[in-house]
Protein backbone atom coordinates (compact mmCIF):
# COMPACT_ATOMS: atom_id res chain seq x y z
CA UNK A 1 0.00 0.00 0.00
CA UNK A 2 1.34 3.40 -0.97
CA UNK A 3 0.10 6.16 1.31
CA UNK A 4 0.72 9.85 0.73
CA UNK A 5 1.15 11.61 4.05
CA UNK A 6 0.84 15.37 4.64
CA UNK A 7 0.36 17.67 7.61
CA UNK A 8 -0.70 21.32 7.30
CA UNK A 9 -2.07 23.26 10.25
CA UNK A 10 -3.34 26.80 10.84
CA UNK A 11 -6.17 27.92 13.11
CA UNK A 12 -7.51 31.15 11.69
CA UNK A 13 -8.83 34.19 13.54
CA UNK A 14 -10.43 36.60 11.05
CA UNK A 15 -10.75 39.47 13.55
CA UNK A 16 -7.01 40.16 13.42
CA UNK A 17 -5.56 42.18 10.52
CA UNK A 18 -2.56 39.83 10.48
CA UNK A 19 -2.04 37.77 7.30
CA UNK A 20 -0.14 34.50 7.61
CA UNK A 21 2.59 33.78 5.07
CA UNK A 22 4.60 30.77 3.96
CA UNK A 23 7.62 31.72 6.07
CA UNK A 24 5.52 31.89 9.24
CA UNK A 25 5.17 28.10 9.20
CA UNK A 26 7.50 25.62 10.82
CA UNK A 27 8.07 23.49 7.74
CA UNK A 28 9.74 20.16 7.08
CA UNK A 29 9.82 18.54 3.66
CA UNK A 30 10.30 14.97 2.44
CA UNK A 31 11.52 12.27 4.84
CA UNK A 32 12.29 14.89 7.56
CA UNK A 33 8.57 15.76 7.66
CA UNK A 34 7.74 12.25 8.90
CA UNK A 35 9.53 12.82 12.20
CA UNK A 36 6.68 15.10 13.25
CA UNK A 37 3.86 12.79 12.15
CA UNK A 38 2.53 10.41 14.79
CA UNK A 39 0.86 7.98 12.36
CA UNK A 40 3.99 6.99 10.46
CA UNK A 41 4.73 4.00 12.69
CA UNK A 42 1.17 2.72 12.23
CA UNK A 43 1.62 2.73 8.46
CA UNK A 44 5.04 1.13 8.64
CA UNK A 45 3.86 -1.64 10.96
CA UNK A 46 1.06 -2.41 8.49
CA UNK A 47 3.66 -2.78 5.74
CA UNK A 48 2.65 0.41 3.90
CA UNK A 49 5.03 2.49 1.83
CA UNK A 50 4.82 5.98 3.27
CA UNK A 51 5.22 8.74 0.69
CA UNK A 52 6.22 11.91 2.52
CA UNK A 53 5.37 15.42 1.38
CA UNK A 54 5.33 18.25 3.94
CA UNK A 55 4.67 18.90 7.59
CA UNK A 56 3.86 22.56 8.20
CA UNK A 57 2.22 24.27 11.13
CA UNK A 58 2.17 27.60 12.86
CA UNK A 59 0.61 29.34 15.84
CA UNK A 60 -3.04 30.41 15.44
CA UNK A 61 -3.14 33.60 13.40
CA UNK A 62 -4.90 35.48 10.60
CA UNK A 63 -5.81 33.94 7.21
CA UNK A 64 -3.08 32.58 4.95
CA UNK A 65 -2.39 34.48 1.73
CA UNK A 66 -3.43 32.59 -1.45
CA UNK A 67 0.10 32.37 -2.90
CA UNK A 68 1.50 30.76 0.24
CA UNK A 69 -1.41 28.34 0.39
CA UNK A 70 -0.98 27.40 -3.29
CA UNK A 71 2.71 26.74 -2.63
CA UNK A 72 1.82 24.23 0.11
CA UNK A 73 -0.75 22.54 -2.17
CA UNK A 74 1.82 22.32 -4.98
CA UNK A 75 4.38 20.76 -2.64
CA UNK A 76 1.86 18.11 -1.56
CA UNK A 77 0.86 17.41 -5.19
CA UNK A 78 4.51 17.19 -6.24
CA UNK A 79 4.97 14.28 -3.82
CA UNK A 80 2.48 12.12 -5.75
CA UNK A 81 4.70 9.64 -7.58
CA UNK A 82 4.53 9.37 -11.36
CA UNK A 83 3.17 6.09 -12.59
CA UNK A 84 2.39 4.11 -15.70
CA UNK A 85 -0.95 4.88 -17.37
CA UNK A 86 -3.83 2.80 -16.02
CA UNK A 87 -2.25 1.95 -12.68
CA UNK A 88 -3.28 3.52 -9.43
CA UNK A 89 -0.91 6.25 -8.31
CA UNK A 90 -1.65 5.82 -4.63
CA UNK A 91 -3.66 3.50 -2.43
CA UNK A 92 -4.57 6.19 0.05
CA UNK A 93 -4.00 9.72 1.29
CA UNK A 94 -3.63 10.64 4.95
CA UNK A 95 -3.89 14.26 6.02
CA UNK A 96 -3.37 15.89 9.39
CA UNK A 97 -5.09 19.29 9.16
CA UNK A 98 -6.43 21.79 11.66
CA UNK A 99 -9.84 22.33 10.10
CA UNK A 100 -10.07 26.09 10.69
CA UNK A 101 -7.58 27.30 8.07
CA UNK A 102 -8.91 30.21 6.03
CA UNK A 103 -7.32 31.30 2.77
CA UNK A 104 -7.61 35.04 2.29
CA UNK A 105 -10.54 35.69 -0.07
CA UNK A 106 -10.90 31.98 -0.89
CA UNK A 107 -12.56 30.29 2.10
CA UNK A 108 -11.71 27.01 3.80
CA UNK A 109 -8.16 25.86 3.17
CA UNK A 110 -9.03 22.28 4.10
CA UNK A 111 -11.80 22.21 1.48
CA UNK A 112 -9.51 23.69 -1.16
CA UNK A 113 -6.72 21.23 -0.45
CA UNK A 114 -9.15 18.30 -0.65
CA UNK A 115 -10.47 19.61 -3.99
CA UNK A 116 -6.94 19.94 -5.36
CA UNK A 117 -6.22 16.33 -4.33
CA UNK A 118 -9.49 15.05 -5.82
CA UNK A 119 -8.73 16.87 -9.09
CA UNK A 120 -5.40 15.06 -9.21
CA UNK A 121 -6.43 11.64 -7.92
CA UNK A 122 -10.16 11.27 -8.65
CA UNK A 123 -12.60 9.83 -6.13
CA UNK A 124 -11.41 6.20 -6.06
CA UNK A 125 -8.43 6.84 -3.76
CA UNK A 126 -9.54 6.94 -0.10
CA UNK A 127 -8.60 10.08 1.83
CA UNK A 128 -8.48 10.09 5.63
CA UNK A 129 -8.32 13.36 7.55
CA UNK A 130 -7.46 14.02 11.21
CA UNK A 131 -8.80 17.36 12.48
CA UNK A 132 -8.60 19.57 15.58
CA UNK A 133 -11.62 19.89 17.91
CA UNK A 134 -11.86 23.55 16.81
CA UNK A 135 -12.27 22.80 13.10
CA UNK A 136 -14.79 24.97 11.22
CA UNK A 137 -15.91 22.34 8.77
CA UNK A 138 -17.60 23.12 5.47
CA UNK A 139 -20.08 20.53 4.14
CA UNK A 140 -17.63 19.82 1.29
CA UNK A 141 -15.00 18.49 3.72
CA UNK A 142 -17.27 15.53 4.51
CA UNK A 143 -18.08 15.08 0.80
CA UNK A 144 -14.46 15.12 -0.35
CA UNK A 145 -12.92 12.97 2.40
CA UNK A 146 -13.73 9.31 3.08
CA UNK A 147 -12.73 9.24 6.73
CA UNK A 148 -12.86 12.19 9.13
CA UNK A 149 -11.47 11.84 12.65
CA UNK A 150 -11.41 14.59 15.28
CA UNK A 151 -9.78 15.27 18.62
CA UNK A 152 -11.94 14.31 21.59
CA UNK A 153 -10.17 16.46 24.14
CA UNK A 154 -10.02 20.20 24.91
CA UNK A 155 -7.43 21.17 26.09
CA UNK A 156 -5.99 18.84 23.48
CA UNK A 157 -4.12 15.75 24.59
CA UNK A 158 -5.14 13.29 21.87
CA UNK A 159 -3.59 14.70 18.72
CA UNK A 160 -1.36 11.64 18.20
CA UNK A 161 -4.21 9.26 19.07
CA UNK A 162 -6.48 10.95 16.49
CA UNK A 163 -3.80 10.82 13.80
CA UNK A 164 -3.26 7.11 14.49
CA UNK A 165 -7.00 6.39 14.43
CA UNK A 166 -7.27 8.05 11.01
CA UNK A 167 -4.33 5.94 9.80
CA UNK A 168 -5.80 2.68 11.12
CA UNK A 169 -9.16 3.41 9.50
CA UNK A 170 -7.49 4.26 6.20
CA UNK A 171 -5.58 0.97 6.23
CA UNK A 172 -8.80 -0.89 7.05
CA UNK A 173 -10.72 0.82 4.23
CA UNK A 174 -8.00 -0.03 1.71
CA UNK A 175 -7.85 -3.67 2.87
CA UNK A 176 -11.62 -4.10 2.90
CA UNK A 177 -12.12 -2.09 -0.28
CA UNK A 178 -14.39 0.41 1.48
CA UNK A 179 -15.00 3.95 0.23
CA UNK A 180 -17.21 5.45 2.94
CA UNK A 181 -18.87 8.85 2.60
CA UNK A 182 -19.07 10.56 5.99
CA UNK A 183 -22.24 12.34 7.03
CA UNK A 184 -22.01 15.84 8.49
CA UNK A 185 -24.60 17.78 10.46
CA UNK A 186 -23.96 21.36 11.57
CA UNK A 187 -26.01 22.54 14.53
CA UNK A 188 -26.06 26.38 14.51
CA UNK A 189 -23.72 26.76 17.49
CA UNK A 190 -20.95 29.34 17.83
CA UNK A 191 -19.39 28.56 21.20
CA UNK A 192 -16.10 29.89 22.51
CA UNK A 193 -13.57 27.12 23.03
CA UNK A 194 -13.14 28.12 26.69
CA UNK A 195 -16.75 27.06 27.31
CA UNK A 196 -16.48 23.61 25.77
CA UNK A 197 -13.93 21.73 27.87
CA UNK A 198 -14.15 17.97 27.54
CA UNK A 199 -13.07 17.21 31.10
CA UNK A 200 -16.27 18.69 32.54
CA UNK A 201 -19.99 18.51 31.89
CA UNK A 202 -21.81 18.87 29.64
CA UNK A 203 -19.05 18.29 27.06
CA UNK A 204 -17.78 15.25 28.97
CA UNK A 205 -21.03 13.28 28.49
CA UNK A 206 -21.24 14.39 24.89
CA UNK A 207 -17.73 13.13 24.13
CA UNK A 208 -18.49 9.86 25.99
CA UNK A 209 -21.42 9.47 23.62
CA UNK A 210 -19.13 10.15 20.63
CA UNK A 211 -16.73 7.44 21.86
CA UNK A 212 -19.57 4.94 22.37
CA UNK A 213 -20.93 5.70 18.91
CA UNK A 214 -17.50 5.28 17.34
CA UNK A 215 -17.06 1.89 19.01
CA UNK A 216 -20.16 0.41 17.34
CA UNK A 217 -19.38 -2.28 14.81
CA UNK A 218 -21.43 -0.55 12.10
CA UNK A 219 -19.60 2.79 12.58
CA UNK A 220 -16.01 3.55 11.56
CA UNK A 221 -15.63 6.79 13.51
CA UNK A 222 -17.59 9.64 15.04
CA UNK A 223 -16.30 13.17 15.53
CA UNK A 224 -17.76 16.21 17.22
CA UNK A 225 -16.29 19.65 16.63
CA UNK A 226 -16.76 22.76 18.73
CA UNK A 227 -15.47 24.98 15.90
CA UNK A 228 -13.50 28.21 16.21
CA UNK A 229 -15.80 31.16 16.86
CA UNK A 230 -13.22 33.86 16.09
CA UNK A 231 -13.61 33.25 12.38
CA UNK A 232 -16.33 35.32 10.75
CA UNK A 233 -16.93 32.91 7.88
CA UNK A 234 -20.15 31.20 6.74
CA UNK A 235 -19.06 27.79 8.03
CA UNK A 236 -17.84 28.94 11.43
CA UNK A 237 -19.05 26.87 14.38
CA UNK A 238 -19.90 23.38 15.51
CA UNK A 239 -20.28 20.22 13.43
CA UNK A 240 -20.67 16.48 13.85
CA UNK A 241 -19.19 14.07 11.30
CA UNK A 242 -19.85 10.34 11.39
CA UNK A 243 -18.10 7.86 9.11
CA UNK A 244 -19.76 4.50 8.48
CA UNK A 245 -19.84 1.95 5.67
CA UNK A 246 -23.59 2.62 5.33
CA UNK A 247 -24.45 6.24 4.62
CA UNK A 248 -27.87 5.99 6.35
CA UNK A 249 -26.26 4.84 9.60
CA UNK A 250 -23.77 7.70 9.45
CA UNK A 251 -26.54 10.27 8.84
CA UNK A 252 -28.73 8.97 11.61
CA UNK A 253 -25.95 9.06 14.21
CA UNK A 254 -24.64 12.46 13.05
CA UNK A 255 -28.16 13.88 13.44
CA UNK A 256 -28.58 12.32 16.87
CA UNK A 257 -25.27 13.66 18.20
CA UNK A 258 -25.83 17.10 16.66
CA UNK A 259 -29.27 17.30 18.26
CA UNK A 260 -27.81 16.35 21.64
CA UNK A 261 -25.10 19.01 21.27
CA UNK A 262 -27.76 21.60 20.39
CA UNK A 263 -30.04 20.59 23.27
CA UNK A 264 -27.16 21.21 25.71
CA UNK A 265 -26.38 24.68 24.33
CA UNK A 266 -27.39 26.60 27.45
CA UNK A 267 -25.42 24.35 29.80
CA UNK A 268 -21.91 25.36 28.65
CA UNK A 269 -20.00 27.71 30.93
CA UNK A 270 -16.46 28.91 31.63
CA UNK A 271 -14.72 26.23 33.65
CA UNK A 272 -11.93 28.69 34.36
CA UNK A 273 -12.73 31.39 36.90
CA UNK A 274 -13.67 34.35 34.71
CA UNK A 275 -14.00 38.05 35.52
CA UNK A 276 -14.07 41.55 34.09
CA UNK A 277 -10.52 42.97 33.60
CA UNK A 278 -10.48 45.22 36.70
CA UNK A 279 -12.21 42.65 38.87
CA UNK A 280 -9.50 40.09 38.01
CA UNK A 281 -6.77 42.53 39.12
CA UNK A 282 -8.64 43.22 42.35
CA UNK A 283 -8.81 39.51 43.09
CA UNK A 284 -5.06 39.20 42.46
CA UNK A 285 -4.34 42.10 44.81
CA UNK A 286 -6.58 40.68 47.53
CA UNK A 287 -5.30 37.11 47.35
CA UNK A 288 -2.33 36.24 49.50
CA UNK A 289 -1.14 33.09 47.76
CA UNK A 290 0.38 33.28 44.27
CA UNK A 291 1.29 32.91 41.52
CA UNK A 292 -2.04 34.00 40.09
CA UNK A 293 -2.28 33.74 36.32
CA UNK A 294 -4.62 36.19 34.62
CA UNK A 295 -5.42 35.61 30.95
CA UNK A 296 -5.65 38.74 28.80
CA UNK A 297 -8.11 36.70 26.74
CA UNK A 298 -9.02 39.34 24.13
CA UNK A 299 -5.41 39.24 22.90
CA UNK A 300 -5.18 35.45 23.27
CA UNK A 301 -2.38 34.31 20.99
CA UNK A 302 -3.57 30.71 21.16
CA UNK A 303 -6.85 31.86 19.56
CA UNK A 304 -5.05 33.74 16.79
CA UNK A 305 -4.96 37.27 18.28
CA UNK A 306 -1.74 39.20 17.55
CA UNK A 307 -0.42 39.33 21.13
CA UNK A 308 0.77 42.91 20.69
CA UNK A 309 -1.74 44.87 22.75
CA UNK A 310 -0.74 46.91 25.82
CA UNK A 311 -4.40 47.50 26.77
CA UNK A 312 -4.26 45.36 29.90
CA UNK A 313 -0.77 46.52 30.87
CA UNK A 314 -2.07 50.10 30.78
CA UNK A 315 -4.99 49.07 32.96
CA UNK A 316 -2.58 47.50 35.40
CA UNK A 317 -0.41 50.63 35.48
CA UNK A 318 -3.44 52.90 35.85
CA UNK A 319 -4.44 50.96 38.91
CA UNK A 320 -0.88 50.97 40.23
CA UNK A 321 -0.83 54.75 39.76
CA UNK A 322 -3.63 55.25 42.24
CA UNK A 323 -1.13 54.92 45.05
CA UNK A 324 1.87 57.14 44.19
CA UNK A 325 5.27 56.42 45.67
CA UNK A 326 5.64 58.73 48.72
CA UNK A 327 9.23 59.71 47.90
CA UNK A 328 9.12 60.37 44.17
CA UNK A 329 5.36 60.49 43.42
CA UNK A 330 5.58 58.20 40.39
CA UNK A 331 3.41 55.10 40.14
CA UNK A 332 4.85 52.62 42.53
CA UNK A 333 3.26 49.39 41.40
CA UNK A 334 1.12 48.97 44.49
CA UNK A 335 -1.29 46.76 42.63
CA UNK A 336 -0.55 44.11 43.37
CA UNK A 337 2.03 44.99 45.99
CA UNK A 338 3.99 41.92 45.10
CA UNK A 339 6.00 41.17 41.93
CA UNK A 340 4.05 41.16 38.67
CA UNK A 341 5.06 39.74 35.30
CA UNK A 342 3.44 40.51 31.97
CA UNK A 343 4.37 37.68 29.57
CA UNK A 344 4.54 38.99 27.03
CA UNK A 345 3.90 41.69 24.45
CA UNK A 346 5.00 41.42 20.83
CA UNK A 347 7.09 44.33 19.57
CA UNK A 348 10.07 43.40 17.42
CA UNK A 349 11.11 47.06 16.99
CA UNK A 350 11.28 47.48 20.77
CA UNK A 351 13.38 44.32 21.09
CA UNK A 352 15.72 45.63 18.40
CA UNK A 353 16.03 48.98 20.16
CA UNK A 354 17.13 47.16 23.31
CA UNK A 355 19.86 45.25 21.45
CA UNK A 356 22.39 48.02 21.97
CA UNK A 357 21.47 48.71 25.60
CA UNK A 358 23.35 47.62 28.68
CA UNK A 359 21.82 45.64 31.56
CA UNK A 360 20.07 47.96 34.06
CA UNK A 361 20.08 50.79 31.51
CA UNK A 362 16.86 52.81 31.48
CA UNK A 363 15.01 52.58 28.17
CA UNK A 364 12.09 54.66 26.94
CA UNK A 365 10.24 53.15 24.02
CA UNK A 366 7.01 52.89 22.09
CA UNK A 367 5.34 49.59 22.92
CA UNK A 368 2.56 47.59 21.33
CA UNK A 369 0.09 47.81 18.45
CA UNK A 370 2.66 46.56 15.97
CA UNK A 371 0.33 44.19 14.12
CA UNK A 372 -3.06 45.50 15.24
CA UNK A 373 -2.71 49.25 15.83
CA UNK A 374 -6.16 49.76 17.34
CA UNK A 375 -6.73 52.71 19.68
CA UNK A 376 -5.63 51.88 23.22
CA UNK A 377 -3.30 49.03 22.24
CA UNK A 378 -0.02 50.98 22.38
CA UNK A 379 1.82 53.20 24.84
CA UNK A 380 5.11 54.74 25.82
CA UNK A 381 6.90 52.52 28.26
CA UNK A 382 9.98 53.19 30.36
CA UNK A 383 11.87 50.44 32.05
CA UNK A 384 15.27 49.20 33.04
CA UNK A 385 16.70 46.32 31.06
CA UNK A 386 16.68 43.18 33.20
CA UNK A 387 17.27 40.41 30.69
CA UNK A 388 17.93 39.85 27.02
CA UNK A 389 17.72 36.38 25.55
CA UNK A 390 16.09 33.87 23.27
CA UNK A 391 12.80 32.20 24.20
CA UNK A 392 12.89 28.42 24.02
CA UNK A 393 10.30 25.72 24.52
CA UNK A 394 10.82 22.45 26.39
CA UNK A 395 11.99 20.77 23.16
CA UNK A 396 14.77 23.35 22.90
CA UNK A 397 13.22 25.06 19.84
CA UNK A 398 14.14 28.74 19.54
CA UNK A 399 11.05 30.98 19.52
CA UNK A 400 12.69 34.37 18.99
CA UNK A 401 14.59 37.08 20.80
CA UNK A 402 13.05 38.79 23.80
CA UNK A 403 13.85 41.35 26.47
CA UNK A 404 12.55 41.82 30.01
CA UNK A 405 12.08 45.40 31.17
CA UNK A 406 11.33 46.43 34.74
CA UNK A 407 8.95 49.37 35.02
CA UNK A 408 10.59 52.73 35.66
CA UNK A 409 10.20 56.33 34.52
CA UNK A 410 12.72 58.31 32.51
CA UNK A 411 12.01 61.50 34.38
CA UNK A 412 12.61 59.87 37.70
CA UNK A 413 14.25 56.45 37.55
CA UNK A 414 12.43 55.31 40.62
CA UNK A 415 13.98 52.20 42.09
CA UNK A 416 11.30 49.85 43.18
CA UNK A 417 11.88 47.56 46.02
CA UNK A 418 11.77 43.97 44.85
CA UNK A 419 8.36 43.39 46.42
CA UNK A 420 6.47 45.67 44.02
CA UNK A 421 8.11 45.25 40.65
CA UNK A 422 6.29 45.05 37.33
CA UNK A 423 8.35 43.17 34.76
CA UNK A 424 7.31 43.10 31.11
CA UNK A 425 8.58 40.61 28.55
CA UNK A 426 8.77 42.06 25.05
CA UNK A 427 9.07 39.52 22.25
CA UNK A 428 10.33 39.76 18.67
CA UNK A 429 7.95 36.99 17.51
CA UNK A 430 4.46 35.98 18.60
CA UNK A 431 4.81 33.77 21.68
CA UNK A 432 2.05 32.69 24.10
CA UNK A 433 4.19 31.61 27.08
CA UNK A 434 2.30 28.35 27.49
CA UNK A 435 5.43 26.34 28.34
CA UNK A 436 7.41 26.78 31.60
CA UNK A 437 10.59 26.64 29.48
CA UNK A 438 9.50 29.90 27.80
CA UNK A 439 10.03 31.60 31.17
CA UNK A 440 13.14 29.80 32.38
CA UNK A 441 14.93 30.34 29.06
CA UNK A 442 14.72 34.09 29.83
CA UNK A 443 15.97 33.62 33.38
CA UNK A 444 12.48 34.15 34.84
CA UNK A 445 11.33 32.07 37.81
CA UNK A 446 7.55 31.62 37.79
CA UNK A 447 7.12 31.24 41.60
CA UNK A 448 8.97 34.56 42.12
CA UNK A 449 5.89 36.39 40.85
CA UNK A 450 2.59 36.93 42.61
CA UNK A 451 0.72 37.87 39.43
CA UNK A 452 1.49 36.73 35.90
CA UNK A 453 -0.52 38.19 33.01
CA UNK A 454 -0.54 35.95 29.95
CA UNK A 455 -2.11 36.18 26.53
CA UNK A 456 -4.13 32.96 26.56
CA UNK A 457 -7.70 31.83 27.14
CA UNK A 458 -7.76 28.94 29.60
CA UNK A 459 -4.45 28.34 31.32
CA UNK A 460 -2.39 25.69 29.57
CA UNK A 461 -1.86 22.41 31.41
CA UNK A 462 1.93 22.80 31.68
CA UNK A 463 1.45 25.93 33.82
CA UNK A 464 -1.22 24.48 36.13
CA UNK A 465 1.27 23.02 38.65
CA UNK A 466 2.61 26.55 39.24
CA UNK A 467 -0.74 28.33 39.51
CA UNK A 468 -2.33 29.03 42.88
CA UNK A 469 -5.24 30.46 40.90
CA UNK A 470 -6.11 31.16 37.27
CA UNK A 471 -8.53 33.83 36.11
CA UNK A 472 -9.72 34.51 32.60
CA UNK A 473 -10.17 38.27 32.15
CA UNK A 474 -12.71 39.46 29.57
CA UNK A 475 -10.38 41.94 27.87
CA UNK A 476 -11.15 43.43 24.43
CA UNK A 477 -9.39 42.33 21.25
CA UNK A 478 -9.63 39.96 18.28
CA UNK A 479 -10.16 36.92 20.57
CA UNK A 480 -12.70 38.66 22.80
CA UNK A 481 -14.83 36.19 24.77
CA UNK A 482 -17.79 38.57 24.72
CA UNK A 483 -19.02 38.00 21.16
CA UNK A 484 -21.30 41.04 21.37
CA UNK A 485 -18.10 43.13 21.13
CA UNK A 486 -17.16 41.52 17.79
CA UNK A 487 -18.82 42.34 14.46
CA UNK A 488 -19.97 39.17 12.73
CA UNK A 489 -21.00 39.83 9.12
CA UNK A 490 -20.50 36.53 7.33
CA UNK A 491 -21.32 33.76 9.78
CA UNK A 492 -24.50 31.91 8.88
CA UNK A 493 -27.49 33.21 10.88
CA UNK A 494 -29.38 32.47 12.94
CA UNK A 495 -26.75 31.01 15.25
CA UNK A 496 -26.68 30.50 19.02
CA UNK A 497 -25.79 32.52 21.09
CA UNK A 498 -25.74 35.53 18.70
CA UNK A 499 -29.42 34.81 18.05
CA UNK A 500 -30.25 33.59 21.49
CA UNK A 501 -33.82 32.46 20.91
CA UNK A 502 -33.28 30.70 17.59
CA UNK A 503 -34.67 27.19 17.20
CA UNK A 504 -33.21 24.23 15.34
CA UNK A 505 -33.94 20.57 14.84
CA UNK A 506 -31.52 18.08 13.33
CA UNK A 507 -34.31 16.13 11.61
CA UNK A 508 -35.49 19.24 9.72
CA UNK A 509 -32.25 19.86 7.88
ZN1 LIG B 1 -7.92 23.41 19.00
Please mark out the parts with pLDDT under 50 across 5 or more consecutive residues, or reply none. 322-336, 409-418
* Residue-averaged pLDDT: 92
Number of separate helices: 11
Termini separation comes to 39 Å
Q: Major sheet: order of its strands?
A: 12-20-13-19-14-18-17-16-15
- The secondary structure category is alpha/beta
Number of extended strands: 20
Largest sheet: 9 strands, mixed
The molecules bound to the chains, other than polymers, are:
zinc ion
Shape: globular
Question: How many distinct domains?
Answer: 2
Could you explain the architecture of this structure?
It is a single chain. This protein is an alpha/beta fold. It has two domains: 2-267, no CATH class; 273-480, no CATH class. The chain is 23% helix and 22% strand. The chain has eleven helices and 20 strands. The chain has helices spanning 40-45, 66-78, 109-121, 139-144, 159-175, 203-214, 247-263, 277-286, 311-320, 348-354, 436-440; strands at 2-9, 26-29, 49-57, 92-97, 102-103, 107-108, 127-131, 147-150, 183-185, 221-225, 239-243, 273-275, 292-296, 340-346, 362-367, 379-392, 398-407, 422-427, 451-454, 469-473. The strands form four sheets. A nine-stranded mixed beta sheet has the order 12-20-13-19-14-18-17-16-15. Strand 7 (127-131), helix 4 and strand 8 (147-150) form a beta-alpha-beta unit. The longest helix has 17 residues, at 159-175. The radius of gyration is 24 Å and the shape is globular. Residues 322-336 and 409-418 have low confidence and may be disordered. Zinc ion (ZN) binds next to loops.
